Amino acid sequence: MSAAAASRSSARAGGRGQTEHQVLLRLDSLQRHFGGVKAVDGVSLEIDKGSIFGLIGPNGAGKTTLVNVVTGYVRTQSGQAFLEKDHLTGLPPHRIAGLGIARTFQNIRLFPDLSALENVMIGMHTRLRDDTVVQLATLPFLRRDQRARVNDAHRLMETVGLDASEVGKRSAGELPYGDQRRLEIARALALSPRLLILDEPAAGMNPTEKQGMRELIERLNRDGLTILLIDHDMRLVMGVCRQVAVLNFGRKIADGDPEAVSADATVIKAYLGTGGEKEVAHAPGTIEVNQLQRAAQVRSSRVVEPEKALLDVQDMWVSYGAINAVRGVSLRVGAGEVVALIGANGAGKSTILNALSGLVPIASGTAVFGNLDLTNAKPSTIVARGLVQVPEGREILGRQTVLENLELATWSRRDRVAARREVEAIMGRFPILGERRALRASTLSGGERQLL
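Predicted structure:
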């Protein structure tokens, strides 16, 4: 057996002291529809205590909706869910959290204005006392309890790979993307859960960061924690999970061990594609490097003349308080050109885009789009001139329909007839949005939200 295979076998063996087939979470025929869309269609699952269970499938397959049903964010229309002997169906999220299910979110949900330490401590709410009289009568005890919670929060931050002394005092909203992912896991662990649900924890991470996330998941599982993992990274899922289930159009189309699932013809057709098994076999990081090298060999034959640059940035600096997030960056984008901005999480990529969009101030340097000086321009002016951004956080108006979200984007168009034609053209370009035009945007999957 190879070292890689031995590592996968060890990871799938589950946490210490695991009892074979002792079911922790059982789902029986769960159903949830949004209008005519069957987001969860009769799904049944069993997750063994001490295991890492993978849930995969295409965008819009129903993975996050299923998690929302299990955790009480969305009510099931039929079917039942049990955490060991505890009946979860119909309970609100805080009751389910109190029973021992913690989760992270596909789109990071932290309290951005609170410190990282405070975010973790919020996860300890189930330990707090409810009796105000008792609290007033035992102030010294409460002070000791507060110190203990602070120490616990520091320990949890260190557990997920965050430097508590350096990161703990910083606002959660100013942390790099990868650190925010880890912070969300630390907050979930603060509940001392029996089941931890991770919804795409490796999304947006580079190969090194993904490997670090894999090691964290395996370490938590070795300590006895049961984990439900949702992710599109097949090397991660197939490498650490003991069992895998596949959803497509709300229905479970397969489940079993990773080898069986990755070879299933239905799964390959619906999700993995013909290269699925080969991709799973590669070591972490090699696919990305090879793809990058191949892509770099295919370049546009067009030569962009420097004097026709559409966007010209020179020596741009952007700061958050005393922290210089962008230091002297210069770049030029010609009309019709595609320019990639890459780098590790925390390198400043999103800050550059936000500065060019007028969302954060440019401390020094110049940035010109066409003939518009971006250094002091308002976001509304920048958008009206034609510079728009698709943010990494999939920021949509969840209470509005898909159609209303698209119509909102045409607010600056004076020709309303042309604006309506443009909206229809967009829905023709992305047929799934046309099919869901009357649904609230909050019901869309993560991938569908990205399209929107």
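Summary: The longest helix spans residues 139-159.
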